[in-house]
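ESCALATION

Customer reports they have been waiting on this structure for their group meeting. Please prioritize. Original submission:
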Amino acid sequence: MNTQRITFLVVVVGGILLFAIFSMWFIFLRAPAPAPTSTNGPVFGTGSNVSTVGTGADTDNINNVQPITGQVSTQRIFLVATGPVAGATLVQTLHPTTTIVRYALANNGHIFDLPLDSPGSVPRAVSNTTIPGVVHTLWTEAGRGVVFQYLDGDVFKSVHVALPAASATSSTPAPIRIQFLPDNIASIAASPDGTQVAYLLVTAAGADGYTAKADGTGSKKLFSLPLIELVLSWPSPNTLLVQTKSAAGVPGMLFSIGVKSGAVVPLLYAAGLTAVADTAFSNVVYQKTSESGDAHTTYVRNVGSGTDIALSFDPFPEKCIWSVANANMLYCAAPLQFTAWNYLDLWHQGLGNVAESILSFNVSTGASNIAALPGSKDGGVGGAIENFALSIDDRYLLFVAQGNQTLWGVRLMQ
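Update from on-call: job pushed to the front of the queue and completed.
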């Protein structure tokens, strides 16, 4: 072998090794991204927090939100509202055909509509019913209702607000109706069609589960469990999921509940368990920590066969949302870098905030892709993501940035 060939091979091999070393550094060792600064956190109210029923004709707060800035740009990620936003949903209208963001402010519960497909649109007030310190929103009836949860002294209140149908053209306010649900609901979920809710109430013996209409009326007890610290979801029409709150290294359980029968079926038992199921209840994506508690791995389980397949990335299931248009597609927020084994615990405590990307995962093919990268040329700002919402055609995705609670939109289809 001549000298030139030897030199060439040395250069090639050296380049490959340098690339590998750089890749390992980028994935595992680079420093976490700085957390976004919180400027407008939620405010907790006391006393009687819900104002008298309004008409939605509120103009005082229009200046507190920023109109969408990305409608005429080509960026995939665009700002919807500076907030602070407690939660949002996407509603599609037919006359004209457009997608509307309906969102609620955390500091006062006021609700606004913003059409996404109309350049120059500004937010329009839908409800001026004041609820200080909203900590959680649950959208019902395809966006025509919302359950606000807030703290009133030492009582955790839940109130349903009935809203007018979203419109891309009408600016005429409509009457708003409110209905209180039981106090101190531990966890609440809406049915896939949004017409019903299920909720948990803690008892001396554990927790009781109830179903009711979206506004909380017509409730009936469905099941009881000798456990507390539970999280409830309603992934498919006939099935509820109940799981113990996740904690790294701590054994957790996942149950399915029959909506009609109330039958409780154990599904999974693992340390640090957290899970999300698809709308057909055919697949469950779940994460568990190792027995030593120093690592976490994410799997998709086929409910019918009971077989597990490890995902090619490790999202936290509670930061995932299933597609309505494609039953096999899952969208998740996942860190861009290595995180500590107990990162999810820290995130729940408000202590963990690293940059996350939005990935798609097809449970049928196993293919995963980066759908959007906040803070890159896609637009947006890097940081932790929460409160996903997805349009029924998979065209738009919404998320709230942890910290300052700004609301962002993502064009999944350009």
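Sent to customer with the following note: Confidence is low (pLDDT under 50) at residues 1-49, 51-73.
Escalation resolved.
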